[in-house]
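Question (not urgent): is this output format expected?
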Amino acid sequence: MKKWKTYNSQLVNGSYDSIVIGSGIGGLCTAALLSMQGQKVLVLEKHFKIGGWTHTFKRNNYEWDVGLHYIGQVNNTNSIVRRLFDLISESKLEWCPMDNNYDRIIFPDNAYDFRAPRTQFIDDMINYFPREESAILSYMKLMDDVVSSSRNYFSQKALSGLFDTVSYPFMTRKFFKYSDKTTLDVLNSLSQNKELIGVLTGQWGDYGLPPSRSSFAMHAMVARHYLDGASYPSGTSRRIAETISDVIEKNGGSLAVNAGVREIIVSNHRSVGVLMENGDKIDSRYVISGAGVVNTFTNMLGGNSAKEISVVQKMKTIQQTKSYVCLHLGLNQSATDLKIKNTNLWIYPGYDHDNAVEKYIQNPESEFPVVYVSFPSAKDDSWNEKHPNTATIEAITLSRMSWYDNWNSLKWKKRGDTYEYHKQELSNRILETVLKHVDGIENHIDYNELSTPLTVRDLANYPKGEMYGLDHSPDRFRQRWLRPNSGIKNLFFTGQDITTVGVSSALFSGLLTASTVLNKNLFGLLKK
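Got this back:
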């Protein structure tokens, strides 16, 4: 495991072309590309590990990822996602293909397997719902159309000036035809079969909004992403940050942890560097924030300029995603011995996802609207080398930060007995669901730990414990200001807020941002 360098004031003496705030995949990709183009880059991470949602944590001999559970398209070495990963890791990042059955959607009366490749997925859906063949084929065609139209939509975010003004209507119009509609509206137009709709939207947790509230464009991009198979990083998800940071350092860049930024320094409407939490000032030509658009404007800028006030007003039109809890389980036998497969489980109380979410929000004692179960040790083909005779499981369900108001001001690991009792009660409920669907593990659970919205706030620096930044609603895609260029000269954004949720999408935000900073089309680097 790579040892990260802690921030020290000697970094103030350096001369930097770009400072990147935050080391999520968007920030790392931006930094790697800029360093490969000759810039001297400094990455500042408030947490004590590099990687954002791709880092891992350990307890005893167990290790869990905190955000990445699977990723599509990297199994194909010619895919654009794989090419970008290979570029910024110098092909050192290796991938473990998951079983063809990457997701299982489970309801009280039946279970439905999502299997790769695409042709298998179509055949399976038609076998499950033989009277809905026409709807299923139309659905597949719509997903293709969304992804095709999204290329111009996202590419347009890198443009500026007159070219931006002139091209915006033409490059976004087709995409808006899909993004303006909710997932439920589109699927209702194809079929009235509620079971089919419940199954096809069974991955809604991957983007954080149930069908009546999510943009169909968001749903389509996520669902299509996995159709030809899913993979997991060999050596756990921390290998993403480790391999990319090696490239940044090889090209003269630096990364520092425990490096909290208090303020982005703006002079004459131009960013000129950052003020650290310890009072250090570090100068740079450019500042790139991967800390989230809301967090940047509300906490790292003074909020006094016309541009900042305007953006803060615009932010009120869209919401931040809600939070979650995650139960981390450590087992004292290997996944092979326990016959644990790597298929993700999506466990639901019924086919109406919106109704289930609403019931749970109104009464947290009601049935969980979803429990997502992931098996990281079964996905990693190198796991047994470093963690012999062990296995890990993660189980996630929805939550709300407001449910934790009683402990909001208390520090991590010092929130008292009532907090720990609440966590244990919730852990027991989640575990009960897991044991119904994962056989043979009950007597092998050696460790368990629950993370809450407060954990997310404190360790991932998301002020409301949010899961995926900004909501992926139809309104979100109409926010023209969600782009790399902040409107303040030499200040840029990167990360999932300017593209969408997901590691691969946040990865491409780095490509967009680096292209914008350099005023150079870096997409050509991906051509073979």
